[in-house]
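Discrete fold record:
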Amino acid sequence: MMRFILALTAVLMLTSLAALIANLPGTVSIAVPGHIIDMPLTVLLGAVLFLVLGALAIWVAAHWLWHLPVHLRRARLARNRKEGEAALAGGLMALARGDASAADEATRLARKKMPHQPLPLLMAAQAALLDGRRDDAAANYQAMLGDTKLPQQISLGLEGLYHLARSENDADAAGTYALQVLEVDTKSSWALEGLMTLAVQIGDWPAAEKWLRRWGRSGVARAEIKQRRAILALAEAQSLLGEDDPAAQMAAVKKAEQAAALDPKLVPATALAAQLLARAGDMRQARKVLKQAWQKTPHAVLAQAWLDCHSDQPAAGRMRAVGRFIGKHRAHEEAAILRARIALAARRFRQAANLVSPFIAGARPSRRLCVLMAEIEVGLEREGEAQGWREKARRAPAEDGWRAGGLRLDEWQPICPVTGRLGGVSWGRATPDAPLLTA
């Protein structure tokens, strides 16, 4: 509507100007050598206007012809980009369904249509990896390093080479690629995190701390920095376990306590600190550390650590001590399981059954509860009921545990064995058919 109003206004203005010129009185005489030309003023003004409009038309046409190659090139690039993006979309779908040959064909078309874009090269590398052609994938990543005018493309290529080297356990090559990325982007988060992970892998704790500080300056949230520092402290404490030096053992205790203070949710740190204190003969402090952590968050790892710290006590003594340990969390499932395990060790089978009965009635109990009930029924000499609980255990949902990339681990690790990421192991419920990876 606005365009129509503007066009109507322009027409009215031009019409008014023409009427004004047509009504102007007078004549104009133009003297040239040997001639005098007389004409009305309106004719002269009309001729001037015609010449101006003609000159404008010629200038517009010349300008359009001059820029025609540019317009044609832009149209061709836009068409190629559209076709290339469509090919990329098809390649992504082929990768999603695991069709390596279709993904290869789509990426070849995308590279032809978009030769200076990094995404086709990335997709070609992923298609090669899907087909098991690691050398072709590395060649595609290397091709991304050729254009020095595109630092982002270089960073992506180096990242791909880094992950290839990590998957082949080539720590030296992976570290080299990560360092090269920092020459292009000094705040590359993944490169700094990768160097930090490699330092943890080889036990170079000063280097790990250095890369952690640089990683923290790359815009990472303060909470994430504390969590990562806690993981480093716990990993260093674990590395000191094999040393017989008492000073190393005390340093391990301090590192484990530091990790627990930085991240209270990192329960393996508390469990390790208690284990080391108990090994040093300080049972009182070990039990105090576990109780403080339990009062914040009851956890199966803490319960197992408590049992380890009380293994020297008779069953009756543990029955009395566990009541003081669980405190206000008597109704918690982990507290019931802990008390039931102690009662089972003391051959108080009915008491153990009564403790876990609220957690097996009316719902699908976890595999751990089913196994515990089977042991209780065996103690009560009811083999039929015990066999029923064993059958339920096979179909029961998996209990919570350490998981990493779809695998279940028997203990916490600082580096995920699947993804190679520092801090990639977390506590949670894995799928029932998830394979168990032992350390």
User: Anything to note?
Assistant: The chain has a mean pLDDT of 82.
